[in-house]
Amino acid sequence: MNGENKLKEMIRAFLPYNEQEERDKGLVLHYLSSGDSIFYRESAGAHMSASAWVVNQTHDRVLMAYHNIYDSWAWTGGHADGETDLLQVALREAMEETGITKAVPVMEDIFSLEVLTVDGHEKKGAYVSSHLHLNVTYLLEADDRQVLRKKADENSAVGWFGLDQCLEVINEPWMRDRIYRKLLDKMRDMKY
């Protein structure tokens, strides 16, 4: 089974946590049926992305970066850029954006699904039109004693936050209330 078909099967098998995930699962599967160009950011209207919700060893802190474009603390993540193994994308982005050198999946399954709106913005001197990120989120674990390093072209700071504290530093109300709060609730409901 190729990577794209494996991802489709994983998404089909994903059990939504709430109505947002249920509806977004259907939309992601719809877009995935449009062909493999959905894995490239050149697919202007919508494309695949992966995020990491990185927790420490005791699962009481989350690693976040202060994202330059969104002017807010946020999870790590990025575009698939042709890669169909989105867990590898999430791992790579977590390390690139925070400076950590090791992270492991808490589970190999998809942790969360989201369709995220991205407003038009400038990136590397070029305008990027508004579009959708068809996002797959993975729950990762990293040692919170690792040295952190910002990635200046994407973020201006990196840090660990207590699970409740992280909501207080997020400047994007929709992301805070609909996505990050959901991720925290899912963690609390999980049986490790």
Description of the structure:
The protein is of the alpha+beta class. It has a single domain (3-189), classed as Alpha-Beta Complex (Nucleoside Triphosphate Pyrophosphohydrolase). It contains 5 helices and 10 strands. The chain has helices at 3-13, 19-32, 86-98, 165-168, 173-189; strands at 46-55, 61-67, 72-74, 76-79, 104-105, 112-118, 121-123, 126-128, 131-141, 155-162. Strands 1, 2, 3, 4, 5, 6, 9 and 10 form an 8-stranded mixed sheet that branches. Strand 7 and strand 8 form a beta hairpin. Helix 1 (3-13) runs antiparallel to helix 2 (19-32). The two termini are 29 Å apart. The mean pLDDT is 94.
Q: H/E series, N to C?
A: HHEEEEHEEEEEEHH
Biggest sheet features = 8 strands, mixed
CATH architect. name:
Alpha-Beta Complex
Strand content: 25-35%
C-alpha Rg (nearest Å): 16 Å
Overall, the morphology is globular
List the uncertain runs. none
